[in-house]
Amino acid sequence: MIKIGIIGSTGYAGHELVKRLVGHPEVEIIFLSSNSYENQGFSEVYPALKGVVDNVLIHSEKAIDKFDEIDVLFTALPHGLSFNYVRQAYEAGIKVIDLGADFRLNDKEIFEHWYKTKHLCENLLDSAVYGLPELWKDKIQSSQIVANPGCYTTASILALAPALKFGLVDPYSIVIDAKSGITGGGRKTDLSLMFAECNESVKAYGIASHRHTPEIEQELSKAYGERINVTFTPHLIPMQRGILATCYGTLPAFSTEEEIYSIYRAFYKNAPFVRIRQEYLETRFVKDTNFCDISIRIDIRTKRLIVTSSLDNLVKGAAGQAIQNMNILFGFDEKEGLM
């Protein structure tokens, strides 16, 4: 049994993490932290877990005093708030899985440019591994800090990494059009995320400026072998959860769908949570699961490859992927607690 603590346990990703970890056969929850609900029971915040998870929530500063009782720390906080906890856990020899953005980008200056926040742990960036198991499983196994990817980024990178690695698309022609459910905005008071504002409406946002853009570019550049830029446009749609990303790239040479499907299947043959599908995708196919579905089409008329990917933003795009990373870190079956 490994002992865990979670800082930021009452946000949407934190709740999803608790809900799944409580049933994991190799896990014991030592503490759950929430500054907003300090001294309340977790099941008071989420009554569906009454009698299942009744832990009293503690302040994050008190959680630090319990670091010597845990093997792994999960942090599920907005960007800029994880630095102190990750540093102290790292110095104590504890493994860390950060669901936020603070350690995803390899370059401090790029982080500060996109997030408008000073990076306070530059010395730990080389110790952090980007936690996308389908691409970096070997590195995750031996890491101490895992930077859990975001939801848009996971969908986009998994959709395009094989195409770039094998030269199937012009790397400078990539356009990503992605849609997200409202929980992707977090559990906070925000007029733009209220039901009455979102229902019966779809909007594009963060056009040419969304913070997931450099994360996508960083990982796709690694797949291609040199620096590339992409056009990424996110949209908010009136549903609770789910990501659907439609990715476009120009074909430099003619390929058939069958050839590209074969390449994708081979690339993900050892990835238990990536499903390569022939049919058109729907977010309901992956809701409440840790799967990322991928479907491929070629537009012969425009000579474009069109790759669609879909996942649950709170599971494969957050908590489920964090558990997948935990399983890899501690040598458990990668699927443990996620099926």
Strand proportion, as a percent range, falls in: 15-25%
Question: How would you describe the shape?
Answer: globular
End-to-end C-alpha gap: 19 Å
Supply the number of helical segments.
11
Remind me, CATH topology of the largest domain? Answer: Dihydrodipicolinate Reductase, domain 2
Query: What's the Cα radius of gyration?
Result: 20 Å
Taken together, the total number of domains comes to 2
Poorly predicted runs are none
* Proportion of residues in helical segments: 25-40%
Strand order, largest beta sheet: 8-9-7-10-13-12-11
Just give the CATH class of the largest domain. Alpha Beta
Characterization of the model:
The structure is a single chain. The longest helix has 15 residues, at 151-165. The strands form 2 sheets. The chain has a 7-stranded mixed beta sheet with strand order 8-9-7-10-13-12-11. Strands 2-1-3-4-6-5 form a 6-stranded parallel beta sheet, sandwiched between helices. It is of the alpha/beta class and 339 residues long. It contains 11 helices and 13 strands. It has 2 domains: 2-149 and 317-329, 3-Layer(aba) Sandwich (Rossmann fold), CATH 3.40.50.720; 151-313, Dihydrodipicolinate Reductase, domain 2 (2-Layer Sandwich), CATH 3.30.360. Strand 12 (292-299) and strand 13 form a beta hairpin. Helix 7 (151-165) runs parallel beside helix 9. The chain starts with a strand and ends in a 10-residue tail after the last helix. The chain is globular and about 60 Å long.
